[in-house]
Amino acid sequence: MAEDKVLIFETTLRDGEQAPGASMNVEEKIRIAQQLARLKVDIIEAGFPISSPAQFEAVQRIGQEVEGPVIAALARTIEADIDAAGEALQTSANARIHTFIGTSDIHLAAKFGADKYGRTIEAKRESVLEMVDRAVRQACSITSDVEFSAEDAGRTDITYLVKVIDVAVAAGATTINIPDTTGYCVPKEYAALFDNVRQRCMDMDSIILSVHCHDDLGLAVANSLAGVLAGARQVECTINGIGERAGNASLEEIVMALNVRRQHFGTHTGVDTMLLSETSKMVSRATGFPVPPNKAIVGSNAFSHEAGIHQHGVLKSRETYEIMRAEDVGQSPEAIRLGRHSGRHGLFSRLEKLGFFVGEERRDKLYQKFVELADEKKEIFDEDLVALVQEAKGGGASAHYRLEHLSIISGTGRTARAEVLLYHSSSDTSCRKTADGDGPVAAIYNAIDMAAGSHHGLVSYGIRSVGEGKDAMGEVSVLISENGALFRGVARHTDVLQASANAYIQALNQLENFRANNEEEFVSDGIMQSFDSDGG
Length: 536
Known about the structure:
Largest sheet: 8 strands, parallel, barrel
Strand content: 15-25%
Structural class: alpha/beta
Number of helices: 18
Distance between the termini: 66 Å
Radius of gyration: 33 Å
Number of strands: 16
Shape: elongated
């Protein structure tokens, strides 16, 4: 079967911007239009010129400054609207006027209630037919590229819809859009609507039929694809699916569905798919609408795998769980995401990529540490893995002390107080102590010293973020001194106060371990023992 091209009519700058809170200034619109041209969409609907001076300027400047795609302007079937659209597009090399009117009885009753349009639905229908004819002819006097949309076609009586389309085609429209304006249709009936139009309307051989679907029932993409199967050769869509209410059909999903299932649809687009993710991010930044992680094609999780079974399969062959390549849509192909559902294959494969080759004898212990950390964090990053390996390699000190409980009371204008329960392995007993401090960390260390039975000089305290995201671990490094020797403790935790306590306990264990084994050389070699162990 010969392949047809499906034209991509990109309406982020018009219908997409109608999403509450998504408005963009003129400069942002121009930058996005230039990106859409690089993306190689076929038509850019730049705005609704009559609606405001800013809309007029955006359409005018995009028409002047953006090369490649057809630049479209929206207009109601009102003379002033079409004049404004024509004026805004006057200097555009490739201009289209897109005019529309409501055609369902619901729209007729609501929008054309005045008696001047007729007192009955039938009379109002006749008035609308006259407006369609007049508007399309006016638009055709300005440009040969005219699109007509029957607004709310999905809920329009089919016999009347056919009449409306016949009038628009006879007046000179070259593209007929049959929109599911309210997101009401389901794919089977939407496809049937196109079949009916193709069979019953006159002179359709040279007319391009277009789909324009909203996502109120989550069916915008499915309905759009059903329309393509039924003969539509233009799809109206937006980047990230933004738009009024629940949004429009998502450009990236439409394009990749037609790409991945090319044999099924027998069609293709001219879109440069490698720019999809870049364009998605640009629109997200301009509108302030974040892209959900699970968003198809462009979401951060779209090519990520956390479950152990999936990771095992993907490491063997990406095709086991991926139907397209991440790099084909501008995403990173390295997308094994480590978390609580990950298995050994994912963990040790990532460690090997980081340059760590873990022997079989150490894998069980390291994997258990990984699982414990994954229960605390939503996602494990490379920095977290490096920290785990280093901790496992350096953990040579015996646990003379173990922190069993920690609570802190702190606030503005009050002294911090900490309570600890410290286990002593030498006596197999636990000691609970409470202490104050200038801040929560000082209070913690004072309480630990009291529970340990001796004071330790804190030489230095450092903290840094390890990993990414709001749940990144804090890494705390401390140096304590006793009799001139220095001992280091390093600990990592999502709670920095817990990490502070753990680091201090680790330093104490380094001290006690060295004291037990090297009492005679304590002063001279303490610091070397501390740093040779790499801090645990």
